[in-house]
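ok so I'm stuck.
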Amino acid sequence: MSNTVDIGGVRVAGRVWIAPMTGVSDLPFRRAASRLGAAYVSTEMVACAEFAKGRPDVVRRAAVGEGLPLTVIQLVGREPGAIAEGARLAEAAGADIIDLNFGCPAREVTGGHGGSALMREPDLAVDLMEAAVGAVRAPVTVKMRLGWDDAARNAPDLARRAEAVGVKAVTVHGRTRCQFYKGAADWAAVRDVRAAISVPLIVNGDIVDGATATRALAASGADAVMVGRGVYGRPWIAAQIETELDGRTFAEPDAEARLAIAIAHMHDSLEFYGERLGLRIFRKHLAAYIENAPWPADAQARREARAALCRLEDARSVEQGLTALWTTRDHRLAA
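replied:
not stuck anymore, here's the structure
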């Protein structure tokens, strides 16, 4: 199997992609993952209507910058005109690929009939895809779930219609919307989508290492895998899984390297958002880095360290606390 995937003429130099994740996939995170070998890291989902209005926090989600080998902006919405305008804005901002979100299960998204709720309105979903494809030259892709629920697993039909209107790749999370993240992802069910389309297929859900990626590819027939929650605190995971798919051993970053990764990520967040907001937004990543710290092995001690560091209000104290956590095996962080 090739290590590259062609998306409408855009070459993605890897089979392990990082999913769009709200509150996670901001520009500092995308830079960190890219530096560590990720070939594809999407933005958080960007609401088209607010994007067009220039709402600052939404525009930040679509931010592009140096240090990204590929720019993928994901859009969410349910009005064809807004989707078309969002796609034009994304392309003007530098998007190499524009992805449409038909997969988010969150109630605040589906409650507005967006995300995976659109799988209950396939005709509207097709209209949205046509609007995006017709608005830009950049390739348009779609991310979806197996369906709304087990009674309506319509991903193969929607994917077939997507290809017919010019969508260049389809990602499928192997759960229905009503499953949210419960149970196991059904990679074998994604094979029905493989049979329905000839454009690249990406499988998503429960992929955390080379072994799960190998099984997901075999079960689904997909061309690539997409990693979501498995990247928390491990922005090197794309390179790790890619190496393991090639049958080679990956040398995970040692303690010193992990500390440097976490601190560089924090500094980038502070520079991007300003210290106060940057530190607050970085806390989700900070907690994940602590969860993946080389020690303490004791779960309670790890929880105490995470709670103590995530309460700190200034970046210097956070950096000092992280350094103490990483460099002192027999430590006691003060709460």
